Amino acid sequence: MKRYLLKCRLLLIPSLAGLALFYVLPYVRVIYYSLIENQFSRRFVGLQNYVKVFQNEYFRLALKNSLLLIATAVPVLVVTAFLLSLLLLKMKGYWKLLRIAFIFPMLVPTASVVVVWRTLFDGSESVWPVYLLFIYKNIGLLIILLSAAFSTLEGEVYEAARLDGAYGFALHRKITLPLISPTLLFTILIGVVYSFKVFRESYLYFGTSYPPDHSYTLQYYMNNHFFKLNYQNLASAAVMTSLIVAVIVVVGVRLQKKFTV
Amino acid sequence: MKKVVVKMMLSLCALLFLLPIMLTVVHSFGVQSVDEGNFRLTSLVPSGFSLVGYYDLLIEHFYVLRNFWNSVFYAGSITCLNIAVSVPAAYAFSQARFKGKELLFFFYIMLMMMPLQVTLLPNYIGLRDMKLLDTPLAIVLPSVFAPFSVFLLTQYMKGLEQSYVEAALLETKSVFRIMLQMIVPQLRTCILAVFVFVFAEYWNMVEQADIYLRRETLKPLSGLLAIGEGLTTSEVLAGSVIFMIPIVILYLYFHDSLEVGLESMKL
């Protein structure tokens, strides 16, 4: 048994080696790049690059737009997914197949629907088409997660609560919400994190690296600097973005643990 | 009565969700009125039946097929290798005991949550230093180690019966055999879910191809369709439909596994 457990560890090696080679070690270099003047002088300049990025008006615009996306589209996404999964729960027999319509868009290549999307929104240059595309793409996953949580709820707990005299709204507030809240928090976390990934949809919709100002998110900022290969700028923006996401994840996970009974 | 209303509402929503996909399919077989400069249609209903998009795409611009096969190669090899690396890793996470395991697993979660724009730069630097840029390996290798599958498989394994291991150890000393003969069959649903999900993700890849590849001949179809360079709108529509087919087939076959497997996606 002891040898077996030892050998089990070895199974992690391929995965860890790959992560080290393509993610961790290069990330250390990214941090290094973010702290030097340029690759030729290699002079250590502390946080100067970070200050420069932060003073860049496009970076600030991008940051603002990314946060706005979190504040507006994510709540809509989570609430819609929540309502839809509640309704879908009531469907029996063939009606269950309605789920497919909501889950399938998660897999459909964005490139495949983009022409029609532009048509439906008449090539609108506002933020809405991309927000809706974000919701369209991600709602399936949230519905799967929420439905799974809902389906574990049924039965005995409710009967017991009813015997104790809980009814209607009170029943849901006292029983459903606490039981569902870990999943709900996780879906919010997923929504927030995935909102950082919405670049592709926006990029395809607008078909350019320079979208209207209100849709210029952090990812555009980074993508565009990629083509200029300005390593210092790119590295500090990447480190900052990763820190923002890391904080969100840690807070999200903590919150979820707190609400898990 | 109330139930009927719910059903109607849901059906309406479902139609709305399917609308973009249906319109794409319908228009690809139609005569479209097109706003060429912007790659969009000017009317929602095609004015007749036509296969011109398919003809132009498959015969005139037959080289696009090469990009289709590139997509098949990239998404297929990434998905298979990713699973081959992730199953053992997930098995290790669920069986082995060592200091810092929780922390290491949290690192996987963190990495999984990072947006592409954060991981692109480290990946790019890694590839550059290994002189792999502008080769097919540039697309495949970093994605093989993407941590999502390890996370999902590990969480799925938590719900499995674990007592068989001691019994199995009486039969064989090979960890590999235990994994292949006892664990993998139990993981079937989750592996299928990972397969569909990961395949769809890399089938849909855009940014990596833009940044790691220069040669058009190496690019996957996704990027090409999106930008539509050198293609007409009817060709893009036909391409969109062809591009969707593998995903539709995978989804229709495996949607049960996909849904059950993804349910383990929790902390």
Short structural summary:
The complex is a heterodimer of chains A (261) and B (267). Chain A is mainly alpha-helical and 261 residues long.
Explain this structure to me?
- The complex is a heterodimer of chains A (261) and B (267).
- Chain A is mostly helical and 261 residues long.
- Chain A contains 12 helices and no strands.
- Chain A has helices spanning 2-10, 13-35, 48-55, 57-89, 98-103, 110-120, 128-151, 156-163, 168-195, 199-206, 218-228, 231-259.
- The radius of gyration of chain A is 23 Å and the shape is globular.
- Chain A starts with a helix and ends with a helix.
- Chain B is an all-alpha fold and 267 residues long.
- Chain B contains 13 helices and 2 strands.
- Chain B starts with a helix and ends in a 5-residue tail after the last helix.
- At the A-B interface, helix 1, helix 2, helix 4, helix 5 and helix 6 of A face helix 1, strand 2, helix 3, helix 4 and helix 5 of B.
What labels would you give this structure?
A: 261 residues, mainly alpha, MetI-like fold, 76% helix, B: 267 residues, 2 domains, 13 helices, 73% helix
Can you tell me the CATH class of chain A?
Mainly Alpha
Specify which chain pair forms the largest interface. A-B, 88 and 101 residues
Q: Termini of chain A, distance in Å? A: 34 Å
What's the helix-strand series of chain B?
HEEHHHHHHHHHHHH
Q: Main beta sheet of chain B, described? A: 2 strands, antiparallel
Distance between the termini of chain B: 39 Å
Q: How big a fraction of the residues of chain B is strand?
A: under 5%
* Average of pLDDT of chain A: 84
Radius of gyration of chain B: 22 Å
- Spans of chain A of 5+ residues with little confidence (pLDDT < 50)? none
The chain-level structural class of chain A is mainly alpha
Mean pLDDT of chain B: 87
